[in-house]
UniProtKB/TrEMBL annotation, chains A, B:
Protein name (database record): Competence/damage-inducible protein A
PANTHER family named in the record: NICOTINAMIDE-NUCLEOTIDE AMIDOHYDROLASE PNCC, NMN AMIDOHYDROLASE-LIKE PROTEIN YFAY
Domain MoaB/Mog: 17-178
A Pfam family recorded for this sequence: FLAD1_M
Organism: Azospirillum melinis
SMART domains: MoCF_biosynth (SM00852)
Superkingdom as given in the UniProt entry: Bacteria
Length: 261, 261
């Protein structure tokens, strides 16, 4: 039995990291609702999310995390910290991470001017038009104040419905990768019963990512075994092998397309 | 207006990081349900959660994250990767991070022997008794297979109800810090309307952490302004100041104890 899981086979797939910025997540006040959504959307287009971090609203922490992640992954997606208040420091931190000036972006300012009634666009709100030099705006169809892209870093709002709208606008401009195919083989055997043969299956299919997720639902314990990879024939073939293994152990496998079974 | 939020005043409070280990979180298959819970529990005992990371089931990633975080924070809490299957590599990775052997722990083995019926404790399940040398067991009242503490690192299960039970057992052994007091001042003004005076309030109270969280509920937009700190008199005094500021801007403040208002 190996003590090391197979590395995720990224192959030619672009990689990504998510950086969640905000004290409220770390204090437990607010439960993050963005990471799982971004993960699903990236997986759909063949981008491999490889890491996520949550950091507080502290300049040196944000700058260090942006620089660590942008050097390592194809794309970095940040959420949070782009509003009008003193604790919204993301734009300034990203400018510092890239070593560029933070500028008042004319197009962002024009959008805010159209959005706010006369006299309402005060200095605090104008901060939301501050974008690192060279940044490209990310549309915000909900409340206008834009996000931005600079280099491989995409800066989005933390409010979930705004973040989702921004991400919908970003996804078409990303280079994706080969589609990731998945099958889930579920059964009501214990994880420990099937572990040895599952490990052998993983060894026979190093290009696949095979995960084992125990569950308890409708009064029954069981395990969902998820097989993922870019070669659909290998994924379905390995799922068939696994179903046969489960039958050999006295179980009744249920094979479904995707990862949710 | 400052472009840098006040650093979280950790004062004499111990600090912590959470490390979530698992491909399933990064693929979006499983939504993490542990970070928010750990954050809340640590905040209650005056431990400041300062960072969280999610990494895949890849040895070098887990080892690097464990070592980066344990050097930086008082406590590190990991979730996930301690089951019986090939993708459960956390114990081996933590042993490697600490440069110690991974050993079969006699007490852990005894617990598994009591839990499983005769003949059911196979080699795969015995892997759940592997603990880095010097590790102290963390009780698992749900399914017996223990977590462990080594140095300042606490290794817990990823299944939420097991993780919660393990954490309940750990919390009494942690040195907490001064209690963190919080008040939330909510009103139906826009964030941008109050931003300038809020920033000035933060400048007058550098020992407090003041966060601004816009909301939309019951058909109304508004903002919750959260003030946190270890000096309760300063927290309540600043909340009173803020309520007065809001009244001055034509708003109607609602002050509640805690961070949820």
């Amino acid at each position: 039995m190996t003590s090391e899981a197979a590395a995720i086979p990224t192959g030619t797939n672009p990689t990504a990291a998510v950086l969640v910025i905000g004290n409220e997540i770390l204090s437990g006040r607010t439960k993050d609702a963005n990471l799982g959504h971004i993960a699903e959307k990236l997986t759909e287009i063949g981008v491999r999310l490889r890491e996520a971090r949550v950091v507080p609203d502290v300049e040196e922490e944000v700058v260090a995390a942006v620089n660590a992640l942008r050097a390592r992954y194809t794309y970095v997606f940040t959420t949070g910290g782009i509003g009008p208040t003193h604790d919204d420091i993301t734009a300034a931190c990203v400018a510092k991470a890239f070593g560029v000036a933070l500028e008042r972006n004319p197009e962002a300012m024009a959008r805010l001017e159209r959005h706010y009634a006369a006299g309402q666009l005060n200095e605090a709100r104008l901060r939301m038009a501050n974008v690192p030099a060279g940044g490209i705006l990310i549309d915000n169809p909900i409340s206008q104040a834009p996000g931005f892209q600079i280099g491989n870093v995409f800066v989005m709002a933390g409010v979930p419905n705004i973040m989702r709208a921004m991400l919908d606008g970003i996804l078409p401009r990303l280079a994706g990768g080969p589609a990731l195919h998945a099958r889930t083989v579920a059964c009501e055997l214990g994880e420990g019963v099937i572990a040895a043969e599952l490990s052998a299956l993983q060894d026979r299919h190093p290009a696949l990512e095979i995960g084992s997720y125990p569950y308890f639902r409708n009064g029954f314990f069981g395990v969902s075994l998820v097989l993922r990879g870019t070669d659909e024939a290998e994924v379905t073939g390995a799922a068939d092998e696994l179903a046969e293994i489960i039958r050999g152990l006295g179980g009744t496998p249920t094979v479904t397309v995707g990862t949710k079974g």
